[in-house]
Amino acid sequence: LGTILFVVQYNLFGYTQAVLSTVAAVVGMIPEGLVFLTSVALSIGAQKMARANVLVQELYCLETLARVDTLCLDKKGTITKGNLKVIKIDSQMDVIPILQDMMYALPDDNATAKAIREYVGDNHFKEAIKVLPFSSERKYSQVIFSDGDYKLGAYEFIVNEIDETVKDKIFSYTSKGYRVLVLYSNEVLAYICIQDELKEDVKEILSYFKEQGVMIKVISGDDTNTVRSICEQANLNGLSFDMRQSKNIPNEISQYSFFGRVAPEQKKEMIASLKQQGHIVAMIGDGVNDIMAL
After folding, report:
1. Rounded Cα distance, 294 and 291, in Å
2. Looking at the whole model, is its pTM more than 0.85?
3. Coil, helix or strand for 281?
4. In the 8-state DSSP scheme, what is residue 150?
5. Measuring CA to CA, which residue among 64, 140, 52 is closest to residue 102?
């Protein structure tokens, strides 16, 4: 616009008048025009994001998104497909009827519960006396029947004292990337191995972020060994940390890349710590336990 204006003014009034008129016009155009051009650019960007099913709440978030240097990811449903499937139930007894009764009594409707229901079927034989649904903080569910008290969930959260034999058994499965739940009633009755496959394009996407210099942190409530195994399958390199041993979150979030057994409150604090350290942080998650971090 400045060039066109100069040419027109030069042809009409000569060089001196053309310079004066052009400078006066450009000085006025730059601040107002910059705002206009920025708004147009961000609006076009928002339209492109919308076509990719992204909800843009504030136009300036596009500029912030372009400056992200740290990407925090949940595991299930983000790196993996989230379509959980029970691969096997390792037990010395027939626990299917017990699991059927528990799944009938529990109101849990998460992916894990759906996978177990699909595997064991929907028959039931006994009515529950007391039901304690699964929660992200407790990491197990509990059903009491007239003839027994059963818990289903993460072994280390169910018992007070860890049996090393049981721990080794669980490790043999989690090292393969399986998520392992135990059925417990005074002792471990069964090991339930659940598989979740990587998304087809996750390696390519994560490689792109690494090439762009974006630091990747995987934050999950699952067993740390399972998280590490899944991350290795996704070609991610780094150290893992069990957040049950956490003492200093700002230091831990700086030193480690993969985190297991993370509580919702810890996820939130981890994001806050990264931001306080000067990072521009993006968080991706699809579960209730991700809400505070998001």
Report:
1. 5
2. no
3. strand
4. E
5. 140
pLDDT on residue 16: 92
Contact in structure between 263 and 271 (CB atoms under 8 Å): no
How confident is the chain (294 residues) per 10-residue block, as mean pLDDT?
91 92 86 84 93 90 91 90 90 94 91 92 88 89 93 93 93 91 95 91 94 95 90 92 94 96 93 96 87 91
Predicted confidence at residue 104, as pLDDT, reads 93
As given in the structure block, the two tokens for residue 68 are 């992200």
Q: CA of 13: how far to CAs of 20, 28, 52, 135, in Å?
A: 11, 21, 52, 79
Query: Which residue type, as a one-letter code, is found at position 12?
Result: L
**Both tokens of residue 121?**
């079927």
**Can you give the pLDDT at residue 2?**
86
Answer for the pair 193, 180: CB distance below 8 angstroms, yes or no: yes
**Residue entry with tokens 């449903």:** 77
* C-alpha dihedral (95, 99, 100, 104), degrees to nearest 10: 160
- Cα–Cα distances in Å, from 21 out to 18, 30, 179? 5, 14, 72
CB atoms within 10 A of CB 196: 23
Catalytic residues: 74
**Residue for token digits 């030193």?**
255
Three-class secondary structure of residue 170 per DSSP = helix
> Can you tell me whether residue 189 is helix, strand or coil?
strand
In whole angstroms, give the CA distance from residue 59 to residue 76: 30
User: What is the C-alpha to C-alpha distance for residues 174 and 277, in angstroms, rounded to an integer?
Assistant: 33
Angle of helix 164-174 relative to helix 224-233, nearest 10 degrees?
20
Would you state the pLDDT for residue 289?
A: 82
Q: Tell me what pLDDT residue 1 has.
A: 83
147-184: burial string, b at 16+ Cβ within 10 Å, e else: eeebbbbbbbebeeeeeeebeebbeebbeebbbbbbbb
Angle at 144 between CA 194 and CA 142, to 5 degrees: 35
